[in-house]
Amino acid sequence: MIRFPRSVIGSVDGSNGDYSAREFRLFTILWLKSRLWLQ
């Protein structure tokens, strides 16, 4: 299971109604790339 920063989880939970699926997907791609680069 992928762990995200609390701020992102809070946005997904609905504390930030302006948070869009596109932004979430972009963050996920960047997060996965950073994981691959750090290995």
TrEMBL record:
Protein species of origin: Marinobacter nitratireducens
Name listed for the protein in its UniProt record: Uncharacterized protein
Domain of life: Bacteria
